[in-house]
Amino acid sequence: MRKVLLICFLVASSITGLCFADGDLDMDLMQNIEDLNKSLSSNLSLKDAKGSTADAKELNRLFITVEEHFVKRGDAQNAVDLSKKSKDLTVEIINAVSANKFDAATDAATNLSRTCRTCHTFYKKE
Ligand code: HEC
């Protein structure tokens, strides 16, 4: 009986091992993105160039990681494209802010938030 239990345990843990290897997106990463996105929109509404630029740069870096995740997954071209689009939008925000065009930057930020939702509709498990 003990042996059977042990085997069950081993099988179960190797199955969970496989699930982890398949690689869900790191939740801390998305939580970071969420916090930065909020901070970015409040910095934009305050016309805080320094803060907005810092947030957008950090978001840009994190979306590179998101993109790599979905490239590795291999079956999620749509998500790869949406990560790229998010990255491009953060660059747009940085450029608009440095040209002191806060309206354009805010439009890009609105677009970015829409991109979050699009990707979640397809790829976020409930
Ligand atoms: C390319 C796809 C993609 C984009 C773009 C994306 N996300 Fe996500 N996000 C996901 C996936 C997938 C999950 C769920 C991960 C899972 O279930 O393994 C998730 C989960 C989350 C969560 C839940 C985390 C938790 O702890 O439960 C938050 C919050 C979040 N995303 C915020 C954002 C925000 C804000 C943006 C845009 C600035 C964004 N995401 C852009 C794919 C994306």
**Poorly predicted parts:** 13-22
Could you name the CATH topology? Four Helix Bundle (Hemerythrin (Met), subunit A)
Number of helices, where a helix is a run of at least 4 consecutive DSSP H or I residues = 5
Q: So, CATH architecture?
A: Up-down Bundle
- The CATH class assignment is Mainly Alpha
Question: Rg from C-alpha positions?
Answer: 19 Å
Report the β-strand fraction as a percent range: under 5%
Distinct bound molecules: heme C
Question: How many strands appear in the DSSP assignment?
Answer: 0
Number of domains: 1
Category by helix and strand content: mainly alpha
Describe this structure in words.
This protein has 126 residues and is mainly α. The protein has a single domain, classed as Up-down Bundle (Four Helix Bundle (Hemerythrin (Met), subunit A)). It is 87% helix and 0% strand. The chain is elongated and about 70 Å long. Mean pLDDT is 87; it is low at 13-22.
Q: Which features does this protein show?
A:
126 residues, Four Helix Bundle (Hemerythrin (Met), subunit A), 0% strand, single chain, binds heme C, 5 helices, mainly alpha
Secondary-structure blueprint of this entry?
Elements: H1 2-22, H2 27-45, H3 49-73, H4 77-98, H5 102-123
Helix pairs in contact: 2-3, 2-5, 3-4, 4-5
Residues 24-25, 27, 30-31, 33-34, 37, 66, 70, 79, 82-83, 86, 112, 115-116, 119-120, 123-125 line the site of heme C.
Question: What's this model, at a glance?
Answer:
The chain is an all-alpha fold and 126 residues long. Helix content is 87%, strand content 0%. The chain has one domain: Four Helix Bundle (Hemerythrin (Met), subunit A) (Up-down Bundle).
